[in-house]
Amino acid sequence: MKINRVELREIQMPLVHYFETSFGKTTLRRIVLVRVDAEGLTGWGEVTAGEEPLYSHETFETAWHVLGDFLIPWVLGKQWASPSEVAAKFRPIRGHNMAKAALENALWVIEAQQKGISLAAAVGGTLQEIPCGVSIGIQSSIEELLEKIAREVSAGYQRIKVKVKPGWDINVLERIRSEFPRIALMADANSAYTLADLNHLKQFDRFYLMMIEQPLGWDDIIDHARLQREISTPICLDESIHSPDEARKAIELGACKIINVKLGRVGGFTSAQRIHELCRTRNIPVWCGGMLESGIGRAHNIAMSSLPGFTLPGDVSASRRYWLEDIICPEVTVSARGTIHVPQTPGLGYEPDLDRIEKLTMRKELFA
Ligand code: OSB
Ligand code: MG
To answer: Residue 282 sits in which domain range?
Structure first.
């Protein structure tokens, strides 16, 4: 495919409800969208980086810089055999995976259209329906959290993830388990602890959680391996895994029993496919994480979740949980069994709402 034109846009979307983790609170998303035009076809990608460099070193601004000054000029006006060839071209740039993923993933949408198949099929997906969970942020009271859990469970979601941090953990899990002894439950710490908290973390074992996500350092796999030997709750890594090679090392060290795959964090579909393959051969379950995406990134997550190794419910849920109005039509909905139907039509499977995107646009830049 020959890339004729690329457009960067920043859109701003207020969340229906703020989202709080151990590293901070998000109320307004500032999202960079990448639109690629190639041979009469259009593909969209989304930068999943946050507003501040807290989850990752990347922000929407660093992604704009790296895309506009490096990645886009490298690919514009040239002929590419496949999106994976573009991913290989990007490899010399160290890091900036969320910037890379936004552009590469847009190309997968174009490739799917060229082949007349769904994005899910183009990336190797087989499931027609994916199991969904929700990630619930830190609330102002435990009562409020319990209320939210009750609402999501009755909506049908198959597992509940709660955010934890020192002071909002054992006390909270205790209450959740006494109200909901049977739900599939997990906790995400976003690196809020260190090995000095070992005895405290051992207490998590009594809540029979599906997993604890990223309890220790965002760049660590050594201490996680040590912790995994001391606790029975499976550790799932999120922040620490940026590549197939890092996934392999974490598995070989025993730093995790499960991996959360995020398209942005690992640098796009090509890298995600390789991590998926590796984990399948090592019997490590994977699931698709979320980054409070708009409909574009959400549609990519749905396609990735259709790969056969994505056996655990992901953090991919209904548009309504985030947005009053999404930027795709139809918006993403979840069935009463807690599943999302994977679109089978050619391309993205959802129509980007161009008028709405234009209205939300704060700035744009054209590369042609
Ligand atoms: O750690 O999984 C995380 C959101 C932003 C940054 C990091 C994380 C999250 C979530 C939300 O947990 C997942 C979602 O609902 O999109
Ligand atoms: Mg996480």
So the answer is: 122-341
For residues 30 and 51, membership in a common domain is answered with yes
Query: Is residue 38 a contact partner of residue 3, using CB atoms and an 8 Å limit?
Result: yes
Say if residue 131 is preceded by a cis peptide, omega within 30 of 0: no
User: Closest Cα to residue 127, out of 316, 275, 303?
Assistant: 303
DSSP secondary structure string, 249-271? Answer: HHHHHT--SEEEE-HHHHTSHHH
Q: Is residue 219 part of a domain?
A: yes
Q: Residue 87 belongs to a domain with what CATH number? A: 3.30.390.10
Instruction: Give the distance (Å) from ligand 2 centre to CA of residue 190.
Output: 6
| pLDDT at residue 90, as a whole number | 98
The segments of the chain whose pLDDT lies below 50 read: none
pLDDT of residue 357: 98
Residues sharing a CB contact under 8 Å with residue 1, sequence separation 6 or more, in sequence order: 38, 39, 41, 79, 80, 107, 110, 111, 114
Which residue among 57, 162, 266, 291 has the greatest number of ligand 1 atoms within 8 angstroms of its CB, and so is best to mutate? 291
pLDDT at residue 175 in the model = 98
**Total count of domains within the chain:** 2
Contact 188 CB / ligand 1 (< 6 Å): yes
Q: What is the CATH number of the domain that holds 285?
A: 3.20.20.120
Residue 243 domain-assigned (yes or no): yes
Q: Which of 100, 161, 163, 165 is catalytic?
A: 163
Pairing between β-strand 235-237 and β-strand 212-213 as defined by DSSP bridges: parallel
* Helix ranges (DSSP H) in 214-319: 222-230, 244-253, 263-266, 269-281, 295-305
272 and 184 share one domain: yes
Same domain, 177 and 300: yes
Q: State whether 222 and 357 are in the same domain.
A: no
Given the residues 100, 161, 165, 262, the one annotated as active site:
262
